[in-house]
Design a protein that fits this description.
This protein is α+β, with helices and mostly antiparallel strands. About 35% of the residues lie in helices and about 20% in strands.
Length: about 375
């Protein structure tokens, strides 16, 4: 099989590569189509940004945002196979703009020299030159149609079904170990279909995780103002309303966070990476992203974190109530108080919950949360 026939056969394949600063506008446009579902990507783009274009990027293990670029005829609704670029154009489309600029400049200098020496051989007389440098051929031939974050976790934004196998091959080829895969269900489970046979057996597969949002019109004032003290409570009474965590809460907050994680995920995080987990809890407190309620003895009995936050949006995680305080009707009031505090900074609240956690789902329904989508998580 000739090289040309190979190019023709693969002309409709996606180009999968790390994103750079040159791709920022396209990535931001993609994220803006789903600001709640793609909040992880929005926060990470804000924190880590994108690297400058460099030929050295190809020599590194991909880490960060990975883009999926489809031929423009396949990425637009109006396109059709007959609109496909010829093989030579496909090759040009795979080259970075800077490389094309250098080639174009070299071509121009060469033809200028030839024209001076031979007289009749001007730029216009060279076959293909006019087409190569025409404005329409300077437009990118590939469009960003999907993306994912690839690091300690794999977080797909959107992956068109026709490229899921190709993306899975890229992940398997370039990444040694992934702690989890999570995001919108269609992207996660579509990718997992091709990864499952070649990756380690997961610790858990949570395919159905309702994504909930708290509409801004939901008024929580009455619920948040309810009395927290309970006459029949045998444990120490809750001392005050929910507040932002302080460094003085550190030891009790760490115990509460470990208890929450163990209940939610199924293992004690201090058995795997105690220093890393402790640092994570400290970072959340210092950055003002943890809320707590404490009892009369200063013990944290309720907590939640802002796991993600960007712009006006945030995503809650780690909602937890001490076992001694459950069944007293306290959870709705505490969650309402936390939500009110968070709204002063982030009006758009979201979270996702396991479908089998009926108690938590009832709590969220009672406090006004509404399902707007579904997440999935693969844990290793």
């Amino acid at each position: 099989m000739s090289v040309l026939s190979k190019i023709q056969r693969n002309a409709a394949d996606a180009i999968i590569r790390p994103l750079t600063l040159d791709d920022r506008d396209e990535l931001e446009a993609l994220i803006s189509t789903d600001p709640v579902g793609f909040l992880y990507a929005a926060e990470h783009l804000n924190i880590f940004g994108l690297p400058a274009p460099s030929t050295l990027n190809a020599l590194k293990t991909p880490h960060g945002f990975i883009g999926i670029f489809a031929p423009r005829h396949a990425a637009t609704a109006e396109g059709s196979p007959k609109d496909a670029a010829p093989p030579e154009s496909v090759v040009a489309g795979r080259l970075p703009r800077r490389v094309l600029n250098v080639l174009e400049a070299t071509f121009a200098r060469t033809t200028e020299t030839v024209g001076r020496v031979q007289g009749s051989h001007t730029e216009a007389s060279l076959p293909g030159y006019a087409e190569a440098v025409s404005p329409e051929n300077r437009e990118p031939r590939y469009a960003l149609v999907g993306a994912l974050w690839l690091g300690a976790n794999c977080v797909p934004l959107t992956i068109p079904a026709e490229y899921q196998r190709q993306v899975a091959q890229y992940v398997l080829r370039h990444h040694r170990r992934i702690g989890s895969i999570f995001g919108r269900r269609e992207a996660v489970m579509g990718l997992w279909e091709y990864l499952a046979q070649r990756m380690p057996t997961p610790f858990d597969v949570r395919e159905d995780q309702p994504l909930l949002e708290l509409p801004e019109y939901v008024d929580l004032t009455e619920l948040a103002d309810r009395e927290l003290r309970r006459p029949n409570l045998t444990a120490p009474q809750i001392a005050e309303k929910v507040r932002w965590a302080r460094t003085s809460d550190r030891q009790s907050l760490l115990r509460a966070s470990v208890a929450m994680f163990t209940e939610e995920v199924g293992y004690d995080p201090m058995t795997r990476d105690p220093a890393g987990y402790t640092r994570r809890i400290d970072d959340l407190t210092r950055s003002g992203r943890t809320l707590v309620a404490v009892n009369d003895e200063g013990v944290v009995v309720f907590k939640t974190d802002l796991g993600l936050a960007h712009g006006d949006a945030c995503q809650l995680q780690g909602v937890w109530l001490h076992p001694a305080y459950r069944g007293q009707g306290l959870a709705p009031t505490l969650l309402a108080q936390a939500s009110q505090l968070i709204r002063t900074r982030f009006p758009q609240l979201s979270l996702y919950v396991n479908s089998y956690n009926t108690v938590a789902r009832a709590l969220y329904q009672r406090t006004g949360w509404q399902q707007t989508g579904t997440f999935s998580t693969i844990l290793f």
